[in-house]
Specification:
By secondary structure, this protein is of the alpha/beta class. The protein has two domains: 184 residues, Hexapeptide repeat proteins (UDP N-Acetylglucosamine Acyltransferase, domain 1, 3 Solenoid), CATH 2.160.10.10; 45 residues. The chain has five helices and 15 strands. α1 runs antiparallel to α3 and α3 runs antiparallel to α4. The relative contact order is 0.08.
């Protein structure tokens, strides 16, 4: 079972990263894989109730890879940490299958409460670089979280969430492929585009009014010169 899961973890990298060329390269050069493999071992010991050692393994992993995963975190199949540096995953985090996270992602808590205090991520999820998902919230199936977003509320299935705080900008859309992460909607860009269009419309209106007034002035002047204004 453990070896099967490791093979799945390695294959997931080939499925998601076009830069992955050979098995040897993946095994030696992917810190996200190293962190995940060490976590799988630490989590197994954690579930068996072995004290201290799981945390020691987790800490060694953090030193080597720059990825901090608490041994209590539950992580499913086909999980991929791309680039890895700065990723933090808290103790009561639950992650489903086919989840991709980029560098700098935090799956953390919001205070000192006990019990379930970290997020639950379901299946088929992409979390962009630097995103923070905080608290005991649930991220639904087929969700994409934009880079730099801060998510503190539940996100429904088939959604895209962006911003600070995170807000849903696409819901019930078609299922997105992981590698189309670059096409996440940009509400700021959309708003600026709308403002640009409105400014253009206002300029056209002002230009039209100026032309109308100039024509009216010319007409009055001509009438005056012809004696009609006397």
């Amino acid at each position: 079972m453990f070896l099967t899961r490791i093979k799945e973890d390695i294959q997931t990298i080939f499925d998601n990263d076009p830069a992955a060329k050979t098995m040897l390269e993946v095994v030696l050069c992917y810190p996200g894989l190293h962190a995940l493999l060490m976590h799988r071992a630490a989590h197994k010991l954690y579930k068996e109730g072995i004290p201290l050692l799981p945390r020691v393994i987790s800490n060694i992993s953090r030193i080597i890879t720059g990825v901090e995963i608490h041994p209590g975190a539950q992580i499913g199949k086909q999980f991929f940490i791309d680039h890895g540096m700065g990723v933090v995953i808290g103790e009561t985090t639950i992650i489903g299958d086919n989840v991709l996270v980029y560098q700098g992602v935090t799956l953390g808590g919001t205070g000192k409460e006990t019990g379930k205090r970290h997020p639950t991520l379901k299946n088929d999820i992409v979390v962009g670089s630097g995103a923070k998902i905080l608290g005991n919230i649930t991220i639904g199936n087929n969700v994409r979280v934009g880079a730099g977003s801060v998510v503190i509320e539940d996100v429904p299935d088939d959604s895209t969430v962006v911003g600070i705080p995170g807000r849903v900008v696409v819901h019930k859309g078609q299922k997105n492929h992981n590698l189309q992460h670059n096409v996440i909607p940009d509400p700021i860009k959309d708003a600026l585009s709308q403002l640009t269009d409105e400014i253009k419309d206002l300029k056209d209106i002002v230009k039209h009014d100026i032309c109308t007034n100039e024509n009216s002035s010319d007409s009055v002047e001509e009438e005056y010169n012809d004696g009609a204004g006397i």
